[in-house]
Every structure is written in C-alpha cells, then in structure tokens.
Automatic annotation (TrEMBL), chain A:
<feature type="transmembrane region" description="Helical">
    <location>
        <begin position="137"/>
        <end position="155"/>
    </location>
</feature>
<keyword id="KW-0472">Membrane</keyword>
<dbReference type="GO" id="GO:0055085">
    <property type="term" value="P:transmembrane transport"/>
</dbReference>
<feature type="transmembrane region" description="Helical">
    <location>
        <begin position="236"/>
        <end position="259"/>
    </location>
</feature>
<feature type="transmembrane region" description="Helical">
    <location>
        <begin position="72"/>
        <end position="91"/>
    </location>
</feature>
<dbReference type="InterPro" id="IPR035906">
    <property type="entry name" value="MetI-like_sf"/>
</dbReference>
<feature type="transmembrane region" description="Helical">
    <location>
        <begin position="192"/>
        <end position="216"/>
    </location>
</feature>
<feature type="transmembrane region" description="Helical">
    <location>
        <begin position="12"/>
        <end position="34"/>
    </location>
</feature>
<feature type="domain" description="ABC transmembrane type-1">
    <location>
        <begin position="68"/>
        <end position="259"/>
    </location>
</feature>
Automatic annotation (TrEMBL), chain B:
<keyword id="KW-0813">Transport</keyword>
<feature type="transmembrane region" description="Helical">
    <location>
        <begin position="21"/>
        <end position="43"/>
    </location>
</feature>
<keyword id="KW-0812">Transmembrane</keyword>
<feature type="transmembrane region" description="Helical">
    <location>
        <begin position="274"/>
        <end position="295"/>
    </location>
</feature>
<keyword id="KW-1003">Cell membrane</keyword>
<keyword id="KW-0472">Membrane</keyword>
<dbReference type="GO" id="GO:0055085">
    <property type="term" value="P:transmembrane transport"/>
</dbReference>
<feature type="transmembrane region" description="Helical">
    <location>
        <begin position="120"/>
        <end position="141"/>
    </location>
</feature>
<feature type="transmembrane region" description="Helical">
    <location>
        <begin position="227"/>
        <end position="246"/>
    </location>
</feature>
Length: 274, 304
C-alpha cells in the first residue's frame, strides 16, 4: 500500500483523538468515583484527595460478593450447557448432514434476528408457570434457548470447514460416531469453542433485560441487572454510584484484557457470521 | 460384479439412515431448548396478542384490536418513530465514522500502539450497556463533563441537563449508542481494509486519483460485506435498544426517549396490558425483519 508521510501523521492524530473520546466517559466515571462520597462533584476534575475507600463502601453496601456469586451461578450453567448443545447440533448439521438438516438450519436462522424484547412478555408467564420466576433459573433456562440459533450456526460453520476425509478415515478405522466426535472432532473444534465461550460469557454477564424482568430481587440477578439496584441505593451519591458501576465493569475488562486476542477475533468473526 | 452392488448399496443406505438417526439425536438437545424458549414463547406471544388480559384474571378475545392500537396510539407510534431516529445514531454515525476513521488510520503497523488502540476502541463494546448508561448520565448531568466543556469554550449558555430536556434527550441517548458502536465498526473496517488487494490502491494512485476518489472506488466496494454486516447488527441494536434507555431516562422526559423495548416493558408489567404488549412485541420483531432482510438481499446481489 502506498502511504505517504503526511497521511501517517494525520492517521495517528485522528486515532489519538478517537481514543481520547472513547476513554473520556470511563475516566469521568473514575474521577467522580474518587470524590468524597457526600459531595456533588463537577464534571471531569481529578479530586485533590482521591477517596479510594469509596470502592470499598460501594462493594460492601452494594452486596457485590453476593451479586458476583449470583452472576457466576448463571454463567456457570448457561455457558457450558450452551456450548455442549450447540457443538452437538453443529456437528450434526455441519458434518453428519443428516436428512432434514437443511430444514433444521433454516428453522434456527429464523431465530437469529428475534429481539429478546419481542419474547419477554410470554417468557415471563412461561417461567412463572414452570415455577422458577424470581430464581436464577428464570434467566438460565431462557438464555440457553435464546443463544441456540447463534451458537449452532457458529459451530456448524466450524464443522463445515473440517475436511470430511478426517471423518471417513476415522470410520474406516472402525470408530463409532461418538468416538470420532470425542477423539477427533472436539480437539479440532477448540478454537471455535473457546471463541464462542468468550462471547457467551460476555453476553450472559452483561445481560440486563431478562434479569430485570424475571428476577424481582436485584441480589439474585446478574451484576448488570443489579445496576438498577445501585441506582436506587446511591441515588443521592454520584461518587458511590459511579464506584459501584465501575466495580461491575472491571471484571469484563479484566477478562477482555486476558483473552484479548481471542476476544477480538471472536467478536469480529461473530459480527461477520451473525 | 452385479451381485455385489445390491448389498453394498443396502449397506450404504442403512449407514445413511443410521447417520440420519444419530444426526437428529445430536441435534435434539439444541432443538428442544430452542423450541422451548424461543418458538414456544413466540407462539404464546402471538396468541396473547389477540386477547385483552391483565395477566391474572380472565382474558377476552379482541381480534386484531391490539394491533390497531399499536398503529394508532400516538405514544406507541412515537416510540417506533424514536427507534428509527436512533438508527441515525446507532447505524449511520458509527458506520460512516468507522469508514472514515479506518481509512485514516489504515497505516497502523502491528505493534504495541496498534494493539493498545484496538483494545481501547473495543472497550465500550465489552462493558455492560447498563453501566455505560450510568456513566453517560453523569456526563450529561447539569454539573457533568459536557456542560463543563461547553463553559470552558465559552458556550456556557448552551449548558443544560441534556437528558432532562425534551429537545436534546433523544439525540443525547443516541450518541451513547454511537460511542458504543463506533469502535466496533472501526476495528472491523480496519481488518477489512487489510484484506483489500494493495495493488488496487496502487493502481488508482498511479491513475492520479485523490484520496476521496480512492475511498469511493476502492475502499467502499472492498468493504461491502463488512458494511452490510455492521448495518444489520447496528439496526437491530437501534430498534431493540433497552439497557441504555432504562438506566439513563426510562423513556423520559415525558415520552421523548420512549422506544419499543421500554414501551413493551411498561405496558406489559406496569400497566398489565399483556395482550397489547405482546402485539407490540410481534410488531417489533416484524419491523426488525423488514429492515434486515432487504440488506441481506442487497449484500448478496452485489456479491455476484
């Protein structure tokens, strides 16, 4: 690519401006969170005496341990179960290509664009009828179903890319379908699976609509869903509200930075495939 | 020879049948979960939409009355209108800004600076939208950073509580969406530009084309697929926005930022009009499809 020097400089400057604009709201939350809890802070000003203890206060009064535990329970069920179901189905549609598989695929594609808001009213009465309303299961069960279209389409796309000769070789060696699936296909699917796992973790952790509607006690929700509780709790203290919101943001950023490479690849692929 | 074909064909046939059985067994858990929590609620929602029901008492068949109300009630129509206004901020701004930014930045060489900027551009995409809403409410507050900046540059007379003003609340909320989505668009376009054949750029440069011409003749056609994908994702995000609005304005002031998601929530759970809320849910789903399908069509046609 031919790029001359002035273009490089302009590119750098534009990039820096965009980065600053991206960071300002977050920096502004931090600067507010460090002001004395009783104060009404003004704009983006670094406090003379940063009150790091606000985070401790917000952590305790926000019952963050309990919230994290509740979120973790939801994530720990939703993500593995979704991965398992979608891998099995993706293998069936992408590799076994059974009769009627095409129909199943189109049937799932139909679900890709349904907004959760369109289903939330009937879901409420459904989980009420099952008897799990106001428990974590009210979020866990629907989420597994709601993630299926995307997850299966994702895993199918992976299995379609695996050379069929591998399956044939395994069958010639006398492997059953289950053996072939476990010994050959699963190890090969690891990159696709880990990318999907990261996406599902993020979507579940940040899920807001379902917990807000289906679990009345904020402390049994996901942390994101509990933000409404923070808003009520700290309505009179901007520093504590921002401290609480930052505490909820931090785990997602930590996970993001640790898995950054897979994360960006997953999000980009997810965007293209979705 | 002829004798061996028949049994072999039979064996192949039975293997295929076994494959079909195993295939359906493998697909069954996913299908059951999907039918139970997507298809079933979709159908019950459709059923509710033809009744008047308060969620507990007896229900009454009202035909298409609920749908008529969705399309005649000014509040509900207003929320649909607001959702389309949000498309300007969730789709047009991020996609256009992303295209320009990616073109300007495209000389990013791999290295610490480039990977760090990718990380930062992605941050708004990672954090819970609800938390972004809280951060931005504070930016827009009377004593917040936006007004602080305006006074600093001598435009203090424009200062106002941005989310509390009927005129500015909707654009203010929309800009939060622009903030969330511009990074995603930029990074995706940057990856896309990397895949465009560099000789195309060299060719137009040798023809003496300026950057604007290069942008129109090489970059945009080369990013067609990425544009289609991002327009689709961001339109869905605009029409089904909920988290940001819930934590910033809850639809207010008045109904200035009311969107379908919030309307459905309010009608269904605050006003207990389950039938009307369900009808609105179905309408929202159809709206999304009506916007997304033509884009997929266009993208596919232009691929040929």
């Amino acid at each position: 690519m031919i790029v001359n020097k002035s273009e490089v400089v302009i590119g750098r400057i534009v990039l820096v401006i965009v980065l600053v604009l991206t960071l300002i709201p977050l920096a502004n939350m931090l600067s507010a969170a460090l002001q004395p809890a009783g104060d009404n802070p003004t704009g983006l000003t670094w406090p003379a005496h940063p009150q790091w203890s606000n985070f401790v206060t917000a952590f305790d009064t926000g019952h963050v341990w309990q919230l994290m535990g509740s979120s973790l329970l939801i994530v720990v069920v939703v993500v593995p179960v979704s991965l398992l179901f979608s891998t099995l189905a993706g293998y069936a549609l992408g590799n076994l290509r059974m009769r009627g598989g095409r129909f199943v695929f189109i049937f799932l594609i139909l679900g890709l664009t349904i907004p959760f808001e369109a289903l939330i009213i009937p879901l409420y009465y459904q989980v009420q009828a099952i008897g799990v309303l106001n428990t974590q299961w009210a979020v866990i069960l629907p989420l597994i179903g709601l993630y299926m279209p995307f997850s299966v389409v994702w895993m199918r796309a992976h299995f379609i890319g695996v050379p069929r000769e591998l399956s044939e070789a395994a069958r010639v060696d006398g492997a059953t379908t289950l053996q072939e699936f476990r010994r050959i296909q699963l190890p090969l699917a690891r990159p696709a699976l880990s990318a999907l796992a990261i996406l599902l973790f993020l979507w579940t952790w940040n899920q807001f609509l379902l917990p807000v509607v289906l679990i009345s006690d904020p402390l049994s929700r996901t942390v994101a869903g509990a933000l409404t509780f923070f808003q009520g709790q700290y309505s009179s203290s901007i520093p504590l509200l921002n401290a609480g919101a930052l505490i909820i943001i931090v785990p997602t950023i930590v996970v993001f930075i640790v898995f950054q490479r897979q994360f960006i690849r997953a999000l980009l692929q997810g965007a293209v495939k979705g | 020879m002829t004798t061996s074909i028949a049994p072999r064909r039979a064996a192949a046939h039975s293997a295929a049948r076994r494959g079909t059985l195993v295939g359906w067994l493998f697909a069954a858990p996913a299908l059951i979960a999907y039918c139970a929590f997507v298809i079933y609620p979709l159908l019950t929602g459709l059923q509710y939409s033809f009744y008047r029901w308060n969620g507990v008492g007896p229900s009454e068949w009202v035909g298409i009355n609920n749908y008529v109300r969705v399309f005649t009630d000014p509040d509900l129509l207003g929320s649909i209108r607001n959702a389309f206004v949000l498309i300007a901020f969730f789709t047009i701004v991020p996609v256009a800004a992303g295209l320009v930014l990616a073109t300007l930045i495209r000389s990013m060489r791999p290295g610490f600076f480039s990977s760090a900027s990718q990380t930062i551009l992605f941050l708004p995409q990672i954090i819970p939208l609800a938390a972004a809403g809280i951060g931005w409410s504070w930016m827009y507050a009377q004593t917040g950073a936006v007004n602080q900046l305006l006074s600093a540059v001598g435009l203090g007379s424009l200062a106002r509580p941005w989310l509390g003003d009927f005129q500015t609340a909707l654009p203010a909320v929309g800009l939060i969406g622009s903030w969330v989505l511009t990074g995603l668009c930029t990074v995706l376009f940057l990856t896309g530009i990397g895949k465009i054949d560099p000789s195309l750029y060299e060719a137009v440069r040798l023809d003496g084309a300026n950057w604007a011409r290069e942008f129109v003749t090489v970059t945009i056609p080369g990013l067609r697929q990425e544009i289609a994908v991002l327009v689709t994702i961001t339109i869905i995000a605009a029409l089904s926005s909920f988290d940001i609005i819930y934590t910033t304005t809850l639809g207010g002031p008045g109904r200035a930022t009311l969107v379908p998601g919030i309307s459905i929530y309010r009608i269904g759970f605050t006003q207990s009009e389950v039938g009307l809320a369900s009808a609105f849910g179905i309408v929202l789903m159809i709206l999304v499809l009506a916007c997304v399908l033509p884009i997929q069509r266009l993208a596919r046609v232009s691929d040929r």
